[in-house]
């Protein structure tokens, strides 16, 4: 006569009932979400507190004195104004030049077949395949011979290296996602190829192009290593100026400057959010 196998002990009824409670599960989920949010947002809240602080001494949990004195100091500083001028001049120039150079290439990658197409398409990632500092040093040595060190155009040209991937891959995906049927229908209706491009292809691909332009602008605005090697001391942008402020001035100055430097990125990314989440952009990447 066989002996039945021993059954594992059932969990205590009280513990099992508590786990089955939907209210308890929601409460635990809410606690974990709040803890995770606090962990992520704590540096941001600390930055905001430092920006409105005039005196914060250890071991105080909160500042002992609030004020906006450092905001007025930052806005009245001549060096910061000069750095803002160079940043707001360099970033639009890099964005415009990268669009003129890269958008035709992106369209060619999306619509035409030519020898070594995939090789050239993937080779654009070469600038991101290894630490960029070594690449910038090599470029700096080349620019020194050309007399571009310490010049505006030297900074623009070296920042174009960072724009290649964004301004080719994203627009190429956007162009590839345009339905060919719509273009063929427009041509069957008698539209010329140029009119088909501007009336059909470009409007549909425009959200992807906008995303690429915004990301290129923000990348140029926040770039520091290449600008430090090629531009300083004549060309000093806001990220370069921030190093001086953080190392040479009280913490509130760095906090104020960090908020001012991050504001354009937050605003532009919120504008681009609807395009970043667009389903057809992802479809373009699948098609490429």
Number of strands: 2
Our Rg estimate from Cα atoms comes to 27 Å
Helix content, binned percent: over 70%
Strand content: under 5%
> Major sheet: size, sense and barrel closure?
2 strands, antiparallel
Question: Count of helices?
Answer: 13
User: Could you give the order of strands across the largest sheet?
Assistant: 1-2
How far the N terminus sits from the C terminus, by CA atoms, comes to 68 Å
Pairing-aware structural class of the strands and helices? mainly alpha
Uncertain runs are: 279-288
Mean pLDDT: 81
Shape: globular
Short structural description:
Helices cover 76% and strands 2% of the residues. It has helices at 13-20, 22-51, 69-76, 78-111, 117-123, 132-146, 152-176, 180-188, 193-222, 225-230, 238-248, 251-276, 279-287, and strands at residues 53-55, 65-66.
Textual characterization of the structure:
- The protein is mainly α and 288 residues long.
- Helices cover 76% and strands 2% of the residues.
- It contains 13 helices and 2 strands, in the order H-H-E-E-H-H-H-H-H-H-H-H-H-H-H.
- The protein has helices spanning 13-20, 22-51, 69-76, 78-111, 117-123, 132-146, 152-176, 180-188, 193-222, 225-230, 238-248, 251-276, 279-287; strands spanning 53-55, 65-66.
- Strands 1-2 form a two-stranded antiparallel sheet.
- The longest helix is centred in the N-terminal third of the chain and has 34 residues, at 78-111.
- Mean pLDDT is 81; it is low at 279-288.
Note the main attributes of this structure.
288 residues, mainly alpha, 76% helix, single chain, disordered C terminus, two-stranded antiparallel ribbon, 2 strands, 13 helices, globular
């Amino acid at each position: 006569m066989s002996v039945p196998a021993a059954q594992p002990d059932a969990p205590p009824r009280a513990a099992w009932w508590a786990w089955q409670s939907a209210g308890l599960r929601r409460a635990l989920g809410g606690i974990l979400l709040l803890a995770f949010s606090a962990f992520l947002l704590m540096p941001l809240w600390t930055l905001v507190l430092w920006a409105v602080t005039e005196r914060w001494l250890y071991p105080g949990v909160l500042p002992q004195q609030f004020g906006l004195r450092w905001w007025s100091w930052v806005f009245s500083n001549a060096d910061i104004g000069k750095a803002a001028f160079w940043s707001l001049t360099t970033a639009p120039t890099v964005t415009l030049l990268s669009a003129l150079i890269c958008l035709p290439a992106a369209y060619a990658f999306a619509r035409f077949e030519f020898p070594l197409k995939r090789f050239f398409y993937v080779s654009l990632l070469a600038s991101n395949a290894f630490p960029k500092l070594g690449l910038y040093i090599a470029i700096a040595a080349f620019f020194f011979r050309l007399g571009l060190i310490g010049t505006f155009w030297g900074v623009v040209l070296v920042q174009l290296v960072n724009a290649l991937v964004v301004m080719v891959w994203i627009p190429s995906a956007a162009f590839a996602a345009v339905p060919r049927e719509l273009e063929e229908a427009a041509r069957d209706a008698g539209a010329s190829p140029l009119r088909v491009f501007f009336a059909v292809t470009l409007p549909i691909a425009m959200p992807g192009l906008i995303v690429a332009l915004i990301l290129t602008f923000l990348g140029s605005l926040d770039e520091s290593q290449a600008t430090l090697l090629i531009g300083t001391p004549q060309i000093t942008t806001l990220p370069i100026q921030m190093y001086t402020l953080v190392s040479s001035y009280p913490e509130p100055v760095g906090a104020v400057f960090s908020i001012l430097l991050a504001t354009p990125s937050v605003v532009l990314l919120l504008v681009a959010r609807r395009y970043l989440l667009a389903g057809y952009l992802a479809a373009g990447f699948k098609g490429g």
